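Task card 7
Instruction: Convert sequence to structure tokens.
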Amino acid sequence: MDKKQTKRSSAQRQKKLLPPKLKMLVTVVNRSKTELFLDYISGFEVNMQMSMAASGTASSDMLTYLGLTDTDKTVIFSVIREDKEDMALRFLEDKFKTVKNGKGIAFTVSMTGVIGVAIYQFLSNSGK
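Output:
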């Protein structure tokens, strides 16, 4: 085994030992669908979610053009493990297309740090 392969396998072993990173999942949906999407997101081992009422800012002409009628929105902030991110985003994308009046957007932002092991364990749903 050469030095490159040794470094690569060492890095892979170290990555397996590290706990998963956390991401902030931000989801914007019609206010009437808030509870539904909170339930959907909680299925990805999410222990902390917060929702806030919001209002869309598009003009009525733009809303008509896009086929949208509801400007009352909710922004949902959820802490999710990085290993669940892709699955959750694909699931939400599917629900945005298939749920009646369930259009929305979702994206993630990396979290750079969490203070305390207990808080991390709670947020990552990995308490022991």
